[in-house]
Amino acid sequence: MPLGTRASVRPGSPQGIPLVWRFVDMSFGVFGVVPLLIVLRTVRPLERSFQGHPVVN
């Protein structure tokens, strides 16, 4: 995220997106991690329960 911020905050950037909207856009990525972590915590026990079992096709 810091690299993207520095690259997009340059004056005269070709995107023409206002600085405020760039931070709003980045906040979706920051807050979007929360549901992903919740799902990861839910899936890990399920994944561990299947370890050692052969996969049947």
Provide key terms for this protein.
0% strand, 2 helices, 57 residues
What's this, in brief?
The chain is mostly helical. The protein has helices spanning 2-8, 19-49.
How does this structure look, described?
- It is built from two helices and no strands.
- With 57 residues, the protein is mainly alpha-helical.
- The N and C termini lie far apart (41 Å).
- 0% of the residues are buried.
- The model has no long low-confidence stretch (mean pLDDT 80).
SSE blueprint:
Elements: H1 2-8, H2 19-49
Report the radius of gyration as a whole number of Å: 20 Å
Inertia-based shape: elongated
Order of helices and strands: HH
Helical residues, percent: 55-70%
Question: Strand portion, in percent?
Answer: under 5%
Given as residue ranges, the uncertain stretches (5+ residues, pLDDT < 50) are none
Mean pLDDT: 80
The total strand number stands at: 0
